[in-house]
Amino acid sequence: MKISNNIIGFIVGVLIISCQKEETTITNPEDYTMYLKEDHSQIAEEAKERLQFWNSRIKKDSLQLTALGPAAATYTKLFQSTGDIVYLKLAEKALTKSTEIAAVGKSGHLLALAHNYISQHRFIEAKKAAQGAYLLKTDSKASEMVLFDVSMELGEYDNAEKYLEKFVNQSDYNFLIRLAKWNDYKGNLDATIRNMEKALKIAESSKNNDLQLWSYTNLADYYGHAGKIRESYDHYLKALAIDPSNAYAKKGIAWIVYSYEHKPEEALKILDAVMSDYQSPDYFLLKAEIAEFQKNDIARKINLIKFRNSIKDDRYGLMYNTHKAILLAEEYDEYDKALAIAEQEIQNRPTPQSYDLKAYILNLKGDHKEALSIAENYIVHKTFEPLANLHIAQIYKTNNLSEKVSPIIEELKESSYELGPVISKELMNL
């Protein structure tokens, strides 16, 4: 019995459409809706109860060191659970006092303070705190690990490598996660993922929820960078199984829904659920980007205004400098204000990304030659970040160096998921 070519063509067409649909549909609302609808504030509530206990032991005129440390840790936990900047600043206050009065275990308090400063993007102060701990020589390994973290943030990569070499241990969780970060900086994503997977096994065997949670979300990020979207999604779900209120994992799923599956309405539903009890200004920027993808200019502008208003809170300090500078340059053409922020970022952390911020703004302003000079001296071949490389390509184009643009475009096509559909469209204009 013969089948006509038309029927064969129809069957093949259906199979192709089916395969394409399968490839671009990773998520299932049934997997995560339970984490959006239910009240999962238990972690924050438990932290508040612990806080009451420890604060009751801290009297205004006493030196209750044993209570200050746990109180600071609880404030930090509350910041992570709610995104409320007030808790991060209260943790800093408690840690600052504990470092002043501690006679024993002072290095631990200094390192905790360094971590707090890193969260606030106060990297130079973080370095001083970590160096202070290192000089005490009571826990050199812990100090070296934090000094590695700070060196990476400051762009002091030679120093970071030296510190990393001091605590090499392939069976140590803390070494492996830093080795993963080092390989990510070097552009070796396969090695990054391999080391994070090793670290995850250690975390799972330890039954430590905090280590598992951190490992799942970070590995999910790396899988996303590598185009392993299914693996990324699965690990965000594993994180939510441990902490149903985890905003970072939910945001990660929202990004998959938006950037990979191109379902903006579903992504916004996830983000709105998260933002009902989690405060973070950058969520407004993501909502603005999704609105732009939807061609909803009113929603885009509203969310940009909400972002700008939210970061007026002085307690955020330098935390959103990069986002603020880009917004000023792209949306309001306030190039000089944006450049002043970029200069501040270079002073705070002279990384390729900070120089990229300045070069990008200069190029938008029309100072193409200066932008090219900065790019060639501080950015080209010094970072593997897709956004920085997109900016390099744009700078090459405005300087009529078209022969240098094409290779970057081809490479960036593999990063379309990471860049997102709005920014990826800019590749078509190069």
Care to describe what's here?
- Helix 4 (65-82) runs antiparallel to helix 5 (85-101), helix 6 runs parallel beside helix 8 and helix 18 runs parallel beside helix 20 (352-365).
- With 430 residues, this protein is mainly α.
- The model is unreliable at 1-22 (pLDDT under 50).
- It has helices at residues 5-24, 29-37, 42-55, 65-82, 85-101, 106-119, 123-136, 140-154, 157-166, 173-185, 189-206, 209-225, 229-242, 247-260, 264-275, 282-293, 297-310, 321-332, 335-348, 352-365, 368-378, 386-398, 405-412, 416-419, 421-424.
- Among the domains are: 168-274, Alpha Horseshoe (Serine Threonine Protein Phosphatase 5, Tetratricopeptide repeat), CATH 1.25.40.10; 316-430, Tetratricopeptide repeat domain (Serine Threonine Protein Phosphatase 5, Tetratricopeptide repeat).
| Rg of Cα set | 24 Å
Listing every helix as H and every strand as E from the N terminus to the C terminus, the arrangement reads HHHHHHHHHHHHHHHHHHHHHHHHH
- General form: globular
Kindly state the mean pLDDT as a whole number?
Answer: 90
Distance between the termini: 53 Å
Please write the CATH class name of the domain at 316-430. Answer: Mainly Alpha
- Alpha plus pi helix count: 25
Range of strand content: under 5%
Give a quick account of the main beta sheet: strands, pairing sense, barrel closure: none
Q: Uncertain segments of ≥5 residues (pLDDT<50)? A: 1-22
Number-wise, the strands total: 0
- Helical residue percent? over 70%
By helix and strand content, what is the structural category?
Answer: mainly alpha
Q: From the coordinates shown, what is the CATH architecture of the domain at 316-430? A: Alpha Horseshoe
CATH homologous superfamily title of the domain at 316-430: Tetratricopeptide repeat domain
What CATH calls the topology of the domain at 316-430 is Serine Threonine Protein Phosphatase 5, Tetratricopeptide repeat
